[in-house]
Amino acid sequence: MKQGNNIMIVGVGGQGTLLASRVLGNVLMAQGFDVKVSEVHGMSQRGGSVVTYVKYGEQVFSPTIEKGEADIILSFETLEAARWLPYLKKGGAVIVNSQEIDPMPVITGAAEYPEHILDKIKDQGVRLLTIDALSLALEAGSAKAANVVLIGMLSNHMDIPEEDWLAAIRECVPEKFIDLNVKAFALGRAADNA
Fold first, then answer.
1. Mean pLDDT of the chain
2. In 10 A of CB 124, how many CB atoms?
3. How many other CB atoms are there within 10 angstroms of residue 64's CB atom?
4. Ordered alpha helix ranges (H), 70-177
5. What domains can be seen in the chain, in order of their start residue?
């Protein structure tokens, strides 16, 4: 996958998308890029949709990504991958955590969680990479590290040295959680190579 300049991080409130965007922003700035990060919150406190746009390059003027412009969508949840798919550019890739989190209409019984989402995404000719980030995060020591597992997988698709990713994690994560997150990052990175 060629390195892109437009990355969307999508998920639901409470999954750690904002920490992931901070790590990504830090590692890109350390490479000398102009970086713009724009966070869009839905009902994030209630498990609603959350999206962060990360744009980088020599000079970036707008922080938002329009439909058809995202080189990579990093999705923390399956349904969110489908929801934001129109933003992916032709030839782009979607990295998806296989976890399914019921949105409020499903919780209340007003709707059912859609079936076969990943198959439907694949049927659109999209480059789809899936990972069970939750299981790997638990292996690292905490379900909350799924975000860093996903960053580990993303790191394989960007031309940035591993040590720079680790430095960004150390900058963004509280000291007592660094070892856990370094392990989560390594598991995500290794899973993509399996």
1. 89
2. 11
3. 11
4. 78-84, 104-107, 117-122, 133-140, 146-155, 162-172
5. 6-193 (3.40.920.10)
